[in-house]
Amino acid sequence: MMMRIQRGPLRGPIGFALATVPLALIGYLPAATLFVDDNTCPATGSGTQASPYCRIQDAICVASSGDVVSVAPGIYPEAIRMKPGVSVISQGGAAITTVNSSGKPCTDSTFCAKRTGSKCSVVTFSSGHTPATVLDGFTLTGGGGQDPNAPVVTAGGGIFVFSSPTIRNNVIQNNVLTGTRRQFVGGGIYVSVGAPVITNNTISGNRAVPAAGVSSAPTFGYGGGVYSSFFSTPQITGNTIQSNQAGDPNLAFSLGAGGGIAVFAPDANTPGTVVIDRNLIADNVTDTEGGGVSLGSLTNTIQPSVVTNNVIVGNLAYRGGGLYTYLNRNRVANNTIGANTAELGGGAFSGDSDVTLQTIVSNNLITGNNLMFAGNGGGLYKLDLGSTPSTSLESNDVFGNQKNQVAGDPSDATFFTTNGNFSLDPKYINGSARDYHVNPNSPVIDRALSTRAPPADKDNTARGYDGDGIPNYPMAGDVDVGAYEWRPACASQPEICDGIDNNCNGQIDEGFPDTDHDGVADCVDPDIDNDGVANGGDCAPYDVTAFGVPVEIRDLMAAEGAPPQLAWTNQMIGSGTRYQIATGQVTGGGPINFSTGTCLPSASSPPAPVSAVPSLGTAFYYMVKPVNACGASTYGSPGRDAHPACP
Fold first, then answer.
1. Could you give the 3-state DSSP secondary structure of residue 637?
2. How far apart, in Å, are the Cα atoms of 177 and each of 125, 162, 194, 214, 564?
């Protein structure tokens, strides 16, 4: 007899199936921790604490969404591919846990098998990742990048990103893009698509330097440290991005941009804002534009980039030693930009702008920058040839830079007499040692335009402290110019959880819970579990696997197949959501007795296979309800909810 699958006549989350063999019951495993230790090698291990896997990818291969791969200190010679919802966390931190992909092939989309070849990114995040997927505490080195479908591009020496994971507390160093393609992008990190959180990493010694080109086919290097594409809005916060290189000034017909960070702002189809905040961006080199940071544009660029609270120091380029911006919507505010070198704009170069793509350069300290031979605009070079330019240069201190501190469209004479810009010694604590905090008698205290300033400074200290004793003077809001807000000497008090270093030990809220280990204590963290949903809208703010309350499912259907399957509308309410599947046998023509049913293995998402069927002349019913840390839905009626609880 041919099997027939049909939906039942009852309203709500229930379906029916006719079949020819008895029901089989199988349990399921909840979220788990899988262990990895290179001391297991050459054995493979089984993932338990007693028998850890030898390789990280072996654990990822068998893991399910919500699982954690816990990696012991050691050196792991492999290129790993992250699975959505599976976090990979080192036990001892980046100083003693290394992944080195030198000479290793990429892992394929099964997360288990290896591709051919001997080059890859150290870590690959393909599609499907959210901030709940975390990579934490590794040194990542030896990456040569990948050659994606774009025929001229090699990308992502250290990390290749195609979605929105969290990348934190790693050392991403000495990854060198290799190959014969003309465009090298993202020596340290390449962000193709998504809004990843990139925080508290050291990104250093990475190279996106292609070979020399020819006049008809030049080569390009973008983003020695980090590259952000036209389809991405990364949050790059609290990192050290140092000694990276994009392009080589000594190679013919080869151009480069963004020795530290290169951003091509996205269009209206990619909502969000690129955020570059509280980073040290130092000693990076590029051939052409933006030794520290390059903010570029493509056709239809519209989304904003925000560059705040960074120390941008010691970088080199032809235009914009510290920072370069061209025809994109941006706010560059409260940065300290010093000791950079360029031909035009030793500190910063601001190119074309537009009324729809306004450039705002406010509250920055641009000091002690240098010029190449016959250069101009040691502090700032502005050249705006747009038909409707819209660049705001406000409340910047441009001081002690070489030869014409400001050049291009403005001059020293016009710049320092408009919009609150000035040229005074900021009185750093120790500029030569790169301590750019200011002394209590600094003229930059309380002098910033508060409406342009971020709420906290590079030390994550709240801005707006009245430093001169006269409220709202000389500028309303009492915000300081530069990356750091001046505060008086710390008077030690017992540490409380308030986002402030109360006991003056250089740490903030130490000893208080930090559920997501992002360096921000729970008491002041707007997203305690780092699942991308703010606490106020998160029904389980301490659980990264859930943020939405389960509701009764919709569109439950049973469909023919080998095996037959149940399908329903998936609820996007957290990676830990499981769907309990209840079943029972229907016999005769009377009412269904739901209290005598059984359970099938739960599912993390539809569809779910139904491998067993009832005997001839009977039927099975199926009911599905979602369950997560926020609670559980119902099966649709009190009678159906009498079904025995499923695991």
1. coil
2. 18, 18, 22, 20, 47
CA dist 284 → 241, 321, 580, 644 (Å): 8, 9, 53, 63
Question: E strands of 383-484, at which residues?
Answer: 391-394, 397-399, 406-408, 428-430, 435-438
Q: How far apart are CA 58 and CA 26, in angstroms?
A: 25
d(C-alpha 127, C-alpha 125), whole Å: 7
CA-to-CA separations, 427 to 203, 367, 400, 469, in angstroms, rounded: 30, 11, 12, 19
pLDDT band at 589 (very low <50, low <70, confident <90, very high): low
Q: Any idea what DSSP says for residue 529?
A: T
**501-524 pLDDT tens trace:** 888 887 889 999 999 888 899 999
CA 105/CA 99 separation, integer angstroms = 13
What are 542's two structure tokens? 């301490």
**Helices and strands (H, E) in the chain, number of each type:** 2, 54
- Rounded to whole angstroms, the Cα distance separating 525 from 490 reads 23
Contact in structure between 581 and 624 (CB atoms under 8 Å): yes
List the structure tokens of 212: 């020399």
Please check whether residue 175 is in contact with residue 157, taking contact to mean a CB–CB distance below 8 angstroms.
Answer: yes
Contact 78, 55 (CB under 8 A): yes
User: What stretch of H or E contains 155?
Assistant: strand 153-155
Contact 564, 613 (CB under 8 A): yes
Residue with tokens 């370069």: 324
Q: Which of 42-51, 507-516, 586-595, 636-645 comes out lowest in average pLDDT?
A: 586-595
Rounded to 10 degrees, the C-alpha dihedral 598/600/602/603 comes to -140
Separation CA 294–CA 348 (nearest Å): 10
Burial 488-507 (b: 16+ CB within 10 A, else e): eeeeeeebebebbbbbeeee
Question: How is the beta sheet containing 365-367 ordered, strand by strand?
Answer: 74-76, 97-100, 139-141, 171-173, 202-204, 240-242, 280-282, 311-313, 336-338, 365-367, 397-399
The domain locations on the chain are: 5-29+548-642, 489-543
Q: Rounded to whole angstroms, how far apart are CA atoms 508 and 521?
A: 8
The pLDDT assigned to 612 comes to 64
Tokens of 307: 């560059």
Q: What are phi and psi of 628, to 5 degrees?
A: -150, -170
Q: Are strands 285-286 and 245-246 parallel, antiparallel or unpaired?
A: parallel
Q: Give CA–CA dist 74/36, Å, rounded.
A: 10
Radius of gyration of the chain (CA): 29
Tokens coding 339: 């000791």
CB 615 within 8 A of CB 22: yes
User: What digits encode the pLDDT tens for the residues 331-379?
Assistant: 999 999 999 999 999 999 999 888 888 999 999 999 999 999 999 999 9
User: Does the predicted model carry a pTM greater than 0.70?
Assistant: yes
Q: How far apart are CA 150 and CA 183, in angstroms?
A: 10
Q: How many CA atoms lie within 13 A of 22 on its CB side?
A: 3
Asked whether the beta carbons of 583 and 625 are under 8 A apart, the reply is no
End-to-end alpha carbon distance in the chain: 34
| CATH fold of 5-29+548-642 | Immunoglobulin-like (2.60.40)
- Residues 130, 84: contact at Cβ < 8 Å? yes
